[in-house]
Structures are given as structure tokens and as C-alpha cells.
Amino acid sequence: MKHQTPHAFYINPVEIDLIGAGATGSQILAGLTRLHLAMIELGHPAGLKVCCWDPDSVTHANIGRQLFLENEIGCNKAITLINRYNFHFALEWIAIPERFQTRYSNDKNKIIISAVDTRKSRAEIRQAMKNYPNAYYIESGCGLDFGQIYCGNGSPELPYPWKNHPELYDATLDEPDHSSCSAADSLEHHGLFINQFIATGVLEFIWQLFRNGGLTYSELYFNLKTGRMLSKTIEAPKKKKRR
User: Fold this and answer.
1) Domain of 154: which CATH number?
2) Which range marks the domain in which residue 147 is found?
3) What is the pLDDT of residues 96-151, one digit of tens each?
4) What is the number of domains present in the chain?
5) Dihedral class, residue 118 (left if φ above 0, else alpha if ψ from -120 to 50, else beta)
């Protein structure tokens, strides 16, 4: 079945909270600027209003894998990227150099994107999502050469990802922190282009909502080693049997 995009998404500004501006998040944010400009060209009255969250600063290890420059080392990631795109595209997007927390707004016109790399962070986001019962939530994650994306809005046909994948939010399963001091060390844990594939998949979910009127799949899987991409089709909710 096809999940239909709410009508309000076509007539009002769509708020997006992007959580994480690292390897995947920086790629997503760059794509959101393109998506915003495309929506305006296609007749959307307001496009996107983006808020990017990240408490971390740019380090030397980020250069090359993430969309930062040498002269930005030491600067906050969210502020650096948002200032860049606001300047070049005359936007008024917001950067918050903190961990994600509730920011009250119209959650009927809201998409929250998770681009974090620990289950602890995902669990914190899940708790905050209780304050956004009508928002879309897109979860992304990856390993060395594979990754997955889940999209939900709490409806019967599009449940939130923690309903079917609770292991992604179990902080006890997190591996010990392996903070990298070099780009070479980072590449031992994540391939050079896997984050770009994941970011493109996240952006495609949003593009489908606006350009094609909804979604026909709710999960997307990549495996660059085997060259495969798989999706999970949205199924109609099962009707309860009458007693």
C-alpha cells in the first residue's frame, strides 16, 4: 500500500530537526539545501525550516570524511554548516550546539532525522519523541560497508522504528567508544562513501513524500560489499478479528 503525505506538508513550512552533523549528518544537511530549493522551484510556498543539533567540534580526523575544512577545526559542527548554507543560499536555518531536546513547535509539520552513531543517543531521541506524537521520524545508521534507514510516523502502516527494531535503542549494546585521532583510523570503522549512500537514502524518503505524494516503502538497506539495496514495502495494517 502507499502511505499518503499529509496535505499540510504542501501548504505550510515543513520543520526538520537534523540530529547530528557528522559523517552522515553533514551530507544530509547539504542535500536538504538542494531539496529546499527544488521545492520552492516546484511551487511550494515556504519549503523547509531546518534546525541542526550537534554539540561536537570539528577535529582533524573529520577532514575528508565529513564536509568540513582545515580552517574550521575547533568550531562547532552545527554552527559551521548552518552558517555556511545560510550565507550561500540566503536561508534562516538554525544551529543549536547541544544534544537534541524538545523544542516545542507544530509537530504535524515536522520531520526529525537521526544521524547519530550510538544506541544511547538514539534512546535519548526516542524519549524526546514522546513530545512529537505526530512527527515523522527517520533513523539512519551504518557500519563499515552497510547501512539501514527506517521511516515512521506512528501510524498503523508506518510505525516508529523502535517498534520493530528495539535493539537499536538498547544502550547496553553500545560498543566501547573508539574516538578517532585520524581520518585513517576512522576509515577502519566506516568506508569512505557509505555515509553518502545513507544520506541519499534519507533524503529520498523526504523527496518521495513531496514529489510523489507519499511512500511505498518504510525501510531501506544498503550493502556496498555485495552491491545490493533492499527495501521493505509498506503493508496494510492487519484487521483485528471479531470475536
Assistant:
1) 3.40.50.720
2) 3-233
3) 999 998 876 666 789 999 999 899 999 999 999 988 888 999 999 998 999 999 99
4) 1
5) beta
